Amino acid sequence: MRLGQGRVTLSKNSMSSSVIVEQLSKNFGQTLALDNISFEVSPGELFGFIGPDGAGKTTLFRILTTLMLPGSGKVTVEGLDVVKDFRKIRDILGYMPGRFSLYQDLTVQENLRFFAGIFKTTPEENYDLVKEIYSQIEPYKNRRAGKLSGGMKQKLALSCALIHKPKVLILDEPTTGVDAVSRKEFWEMLDRLKMTGISILVSTPYMDEASRCDRVALIQGGKLLSIDSPGNIIRKFEYPLWAIGARDIYPLLADLRQFEATRTAFLFGQHVHLSTRGKGREGALIQEYLELKGHMDVDVRLTEPTIEDCFMELMV
Amino acid sequence: MEEPHRIIEVENLVKKFGHFVANDRLTFTVGQGEIFGFLGANGAGKTTAMRILCGLSSPTSGKVSVAGFNVYTQTEKIKRNIGYMSQKFSLYDDLTVWENFRFYGGIYGLSAKKIRERTDELLGRLGLLSEKNRILKEIPLGWKQKLAFSVAIIHHPSIVFLDEPTGGVDPVTRRQFWEMIYETAREGITVFVTTHYMDEAEYCQRVSIMVDGRIVALDTPVRLKETYQVLTMEEVFLKLARG
Questions:
Q1: What pLDDT, on a 0 to 100 scale, did the predictor assign at position A15?
Q2: Which residues from chain A sit within 8 angstroms of residue B167, using beta carbons?
Q3: Is the pLDDT of residue A185 over 70?
Q4: Is A2-235 a CATH 3.40.50.300 domain?
Q5: Does the domain at residues A241-315 carry the CATH identifier 3.30.70?
Q6: How many CB pairs under 8 A join A and B?
């Protein structure tokens, strides 16, 4: 994309991170919503914040988008300070907040024109950037935004966040409450957007989406549990992990929790993921134990941890 | 021949809004104590069907009975005999835990004594007896979900409807929630659940998938994966819902 290439050159010349957060904390009365958070995002990186509700993702994003003041610490976006230079930051940011935040009673086209206008541009000027996304909802351009399906609302919100060619795109839980198909399509769109050089920060409670990011920060209770590429986070999982199946999964879970070598046992679809204290040679022992307990169709094998396994391990 | 008691019987359910057919001849049954997953893309017609099953809306045509009651003529009996929990609608934030239980227990027509007993039993199981007088607003989301589920079954309904009950909750709490669901089903309460977490679809005994108003698949997760030659329910869903 012609326009995107221009921006990549700019980022490379500035030779610094796109977003820098240093020891950021934020209180709401007695509640510590963010606890001494530090991280950096490189230009053109797709950076994910993975964590449940209440972890602090939205608070963090509100501070990054200059909608809320930091409690303490230093935050810069593209070299600009979120407190001193908030107006300049707002011109170069695209933001998709957690809830559908466009105007329900305006049409698709009216929403796009409105947001472009706020940033003193027009949809036509930057159409190239949003074309791939917007073209999917263009047939509905005269429909009121409130009447769109969940997936289409997402696409419209994303188009409106991009229409002024931002350098940094911040998406707060864009896939929450959306079905698996639309979620997959959305991440495919983000992959393509990344290629234009925009830095993208995304938050999500869906652990499996972590693997689509260049790097992720696992966040829980206002703290960062880990920051790394998804592959590295998985490699850092310390214990042997077993995937165990049997005919009746709930009794299987109960019995595995009583097993002496068990550290943790959690449901994972049709299996139980079991971490043990040993060196990964307990397979036969586990099988024997379960068969003695009367389980049928027992299947025990070592498995690679998922981001979710890693998150739960870091949480406990 | 012994057949498990059918808690939900749906035959050719049709629901139209003007010319738009939201539910197109749905046919399925759900047995007592079953954990039944009701999946579909947004806009597929799940919410419409669930509202009908909860007695909140009438079909355009077709036969539907829930807990033995007719959905056209006995909606009040249905409401009294079901539980409902949704991520969107939960307990009252400005009431305490106890006040919420008392309120809902009262709505379901339980006696004061029964409400007290049942509350203590349910809170005891959750290990939350100490939180009885805490305001809901101060309680973390994960606990709120578990409390909302307990309230939904306070009156021992024959079936509980769960509409995306674990949205946004941390992965440990999510699993604890599903362990509660398993226990509940073992006690004979039927669980009818919708979810966007595909690994949760694997916890269900049978799963149905709706696309554009129709049920395009209905079977156990194991058989669905075999039929579509894939390893996970997510892949089954993607194959069917993408069209």
A1: 53
A2: 176-177, 205
A3: yes
A4: yes
A5: yes
A6: 87
Could you tell me if residue B87 is inside a domain?
A: yes
| Distance, CA of A54 to CA of A38 (rounded, Å) | 18
A79 touches chain B (CB under 8 A): no
Q: Please say whether the beta carbons of B10 and B64 come within 8 A.
A: yes
Token pair of B78 as six digits: 């249905």
Is A35 or A136 the better-scoring residue by pLDDT?
A: A35
Whole-angstrom distance, CA of residue B99 vs CA of residue A130: 50
Evaluate whether residue B1 is within a structural domain. no
Please choose, from the candidates A52, A48, A51, the residue with its C-alpha nearest in 3D space to the C-alpha of residue A228: A48
Indicate the helix (H) or strand (E) that contains B217. Answer: strand B214-219
Q: What is the value of ipTM here, to two decimals? A: 0.80
**Cβ(A41)–Cβ(A19) below 8 Å:** yes
Q: Cα–Cα distance between A170 and A41 in angstroms, integer?
A: 12
Looking at residue B231, which CATH number applies to its domain?
A: 3.40.50.300
Of B173 and A85, the one with more pLDDT: A85
Predicted pLDDT of residue B4: 60
pLDDT above 60 for A7:
no
Q: Is A53 in contact with B232 (Cβ distance < 8 A)?
A: no
The residue whose two tokens read 């795109």 is A169
The answer to whether position B23 is within a domain reads yes
Instruction: Tell whether B238 lies on the interface with A, counting CB pairs under 8 A.
Output: yes
* A1 in reach of chain B (CB within 8 A): no
**Tokens read off for A126:** 């930057």
On whether any CB of chain B is under 8 Å from the CB of A6, the answer is: no
Tokens representing B101? 């239980």
pLDDT in tens, A117-165: 988 898 888 888 888 888 888 899 999 998 887 778 888 999 999 999 9
Give me the mean pLDDT over the B197-209 stretch. 92
pTM score: 0.83
pLDDT at position A135, please?
Answer: 87
> Where do the structural domains in chain A lie, given as residue ranges?
2-235, 241-315
Percentage of residues of chain A with pLDDT beyond 90: 65
pLDDT at A278 over 90: no
**Residue of chain A whose alpha carbon sits nearest to that of B170:** A52
Lowest mean pLDDT among A202-206, B61-65, B165-169: B165-169
- Residue B100, domain extent: 6-241
pLDDT digits 0-9 by tens, A295-307: 999 999 999 999 9
Give the count of domains, chain B: 1
